[in-house]
Amino acid sequence: MATGKTAQASILVTGVAGFIGFHVAMKLLERGEKVIGLDNVNDYYDVRLKRARLAKLKPFKQFTFTKTDLANRVKTQKIFATQPITKVVHLAAQAGVRYSLVNPHAYTDSNIEGFLNVLEGCRRAKVQHLVYASSSSVYGGNTQMPFSTHDNVDHPVSLYAASKKANELMAHSYAHLYRIPCTGLRFFTVYGPWGRPDMALFIFTKAILEGKPIEVYNQGKMRRDFTYIDDIVEGVIRTLDHPARPNRAWSGDKPDPGTSSAPARIYNIGNHQPVELLRFIEVLEETIGKKAKKKLLPIQPGDVPATYADIDDLSRDVGFKPATSIEAGIPRFVQWYREFYKA
């Protein structure tokens, strides 16, 4: 073997053109990490926004981007085989509860087949840690608040939620069989600058600025654990730096869903302060300086009336402390929106 300078170990960030993936990659690059970004840049929402995010990352010399679909087994294997990948932040997925009602196969292609290809890549590359995106949607029919990772989550109410629960099970099996440290993060309603156009804050801001009505489901009686993007990124990277370890006290007689005898963990990552949707809209109205025209509607299939994260485990294990209220976070989003769209 030729001697010489060893290639710097890389962190693979999938879904890097996406909302959370972009912010995570940016933070990793700013602290000097070498990042391989992967995304299929699909048209689920405005491709121009995805390209604009990528354009912000490309000036970093430590960043390389590959456009590919994780469901493509050969191409995904090649990425792991040709790059010195030591850690993976897997954020690529087909997102959205409502879209899963009209295009279910997009979820099996991306969230099941794509995730399996990532797991296989991690196994072959012997990665040190896989951190992957799960979702608060997995709590489905659960009504006991706050949602705890130590509770059973076997009653999903959307295919999207079922696909995320499947990811947790798949990751656990690989952690058990191949001792790959795997950590799943159940995200709770993430918002902030560069956010997704299919999310409530983006939709509401656009409509209010254009003088159009906003659709408010469940008559506005929704509560969400809105979590600001900077807090999410801090939590993701802290988790990445703390590979999952087996719980030595885990027992098959009374199995704890949140931990394992394998190096597999599940955490909630949320603001731990659920907010009424009508209050969320109120803060947005105050920020924009204009009242919203509200169209009150019944709850949609697949939606849940409330989410609320128990984050004690993540706070204890990695020091996660969300610090951004909606009163601080919403104005930052609106400022970004006005600048980006010249609104």
Describe the protein.
The protein is an alpha/beta fold. It contains ten helices and 13 strands. The protein has helices spanning 19-30, 47-57, 73-82, 105-125, 159-178, 200-210, 229-240, 277-288, 312-318, 326-341, and strands at 10-14, 34-39, 63-67, 85-90, 129-135, 182-187, 190-191, 214-217, 223-224, 227-228, 264-269, 275-276, 294-297. It has a seven-stranded parallel beta sheet with strand order 3-2-1-4-5-6-11, sandwiched between helices. A two-stranded parallel ribbon has the order 7-10. The model is unreliable at 1-5 (pLDDT under 50).
What's this, in brief?
This protein is an alpha/beta fold.
Q: What are the salient characteristics of this protein?
A:
single chain, globular, 10 helices, two-stranded parallel ribbon, 343 residues, disordered N terminus, alpha/beta
